[in-house]
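hey
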């Protein structure tokens, strides 16, 4: 009796164990599916930030450099100073030229006034000469005046009108030299523009931080010559940090903008950061299919081996912890939690 009972117990235990294995397999499969497709996860991710190269707008030797490499700076902080003396000299010259231009404008305005007075005088003389001619011409038929007198009156009238035309031309020339166009004087505007341009160059000598940032790759010293438009170091923008996470294309259906994410950094493995999906990449560069000439170049592939592409997903980090600062290039592990 003992042996059959023992065999029965073993069979029951075996069936229970088999059922437990099947159940565990199903649970594990559901967990893996949920982990992979409901809450996609990747460790192919890195912390990123926007950065800009700092280049001066003007050329010259650096005379001040109050920052050091890896220093944090705030918007408006002085980064370095290019020798402003040549540009200050140009500014002083432009201001002096503006004063001379104002004096010239005053002189041209007086010349315009004088030309207008001459024109009025010439017009009055022409009107008198024309009236005199109109009076003496009828007297010729009655021989109250001689033909020479009429000829002289006609000549004076013609000469008076010619002087009017000359006075008008002189007035136009004086107005052109004045350069007044409505309420704007072109001469003064040109001189003021030169002063503004010179003032800009002086201001450009003092290079300041455009936003809160970290100084990176600073390898210059006072006395080094800075060339216009050539970058000399970089600033990493500290206002917005994000993670570029590369997810397999089979997971993209479970990722959408606005979804919350959990982000862990290898630098701080026990600290969780929260992020939000900003967007999913729309394209990847592929050498296979790239155009060569006018025809596409397509390399042969093994049909039974198809590797899933990885698309970049931009995740904006929503919080900063001074005790756990972000650094560009940190390795991250990202899990997408879905909609809030």
């Amino acid at each position: 009796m003992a042996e059959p009972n023992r065999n029965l117990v073993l069979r029951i235990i075996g069936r229970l164990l088999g059922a437990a294995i099947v159940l565990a397999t199903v649970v594990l499969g559901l967990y893996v599916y949920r982990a992979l497709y409901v809450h996609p996860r990747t460790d192919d991710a890195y912390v990123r930030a926007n950065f800009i190269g700092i280049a001066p707008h003007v050329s010259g030797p650096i005379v001040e450099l109050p920052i050091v490499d890896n220093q944090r700076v705030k918007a408006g902080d002085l980064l370095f100073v290019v020798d402003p003396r040549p540009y200050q000299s140009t500014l002083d010259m432009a201001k002096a030229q503006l004063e001379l231009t104002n004096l010239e404008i005053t002189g041209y305005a007086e010349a315009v006034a004088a030309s207008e007075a001459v024109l009025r005088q010439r017009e009055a003389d022409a009107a008198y000469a024309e009236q005199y001619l109109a009076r003496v011409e009828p007297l010729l038929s009655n021989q109250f005046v001689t033909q020479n007198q009429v000829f002289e009156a006609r000549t004076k009238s013609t000469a008076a009108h010619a002087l009017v035309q000359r006075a008008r031309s002189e007035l136009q020339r004086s107005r052109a030299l004045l350069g007044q166009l409505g309420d704007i004087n072109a001469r003064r505007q040109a001189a003021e523009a030169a002063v503004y341009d010179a003032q800009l160059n002086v201001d450009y000598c003092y290079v300041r931080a455009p936003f809160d940032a970290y100084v990176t790759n600073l390898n210059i010293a006072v006395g080094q010559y800075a060339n216009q438009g050539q970058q000399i170091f970089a600033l990493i923008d500290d206002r917005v940090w994000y993670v570029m996470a590369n997810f397999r294309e089979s997971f993209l259906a479970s990722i959408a903008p606005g979804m919350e994410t959990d982000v862990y950094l290898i630098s701080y493995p026990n600290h969780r950061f929260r992020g939000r999906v900003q967007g999913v990449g729309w394209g990847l560069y592929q050498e296979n299919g790239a155009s060569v000439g006018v025809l596409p170049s397509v390399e042969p592939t093994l049909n039974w081996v198809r590797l899933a592409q990885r698309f970049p997903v931009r995740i904006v980090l929503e919080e900063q912890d001074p005790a756990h600062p972000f650094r560009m290039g940190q390795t991250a592990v990202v899990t997408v939690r879905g909609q809030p």
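The chain has four helices and 16 strands. The chain has three domains: 40-49+239-338, 56-83+205-230, 86-202.
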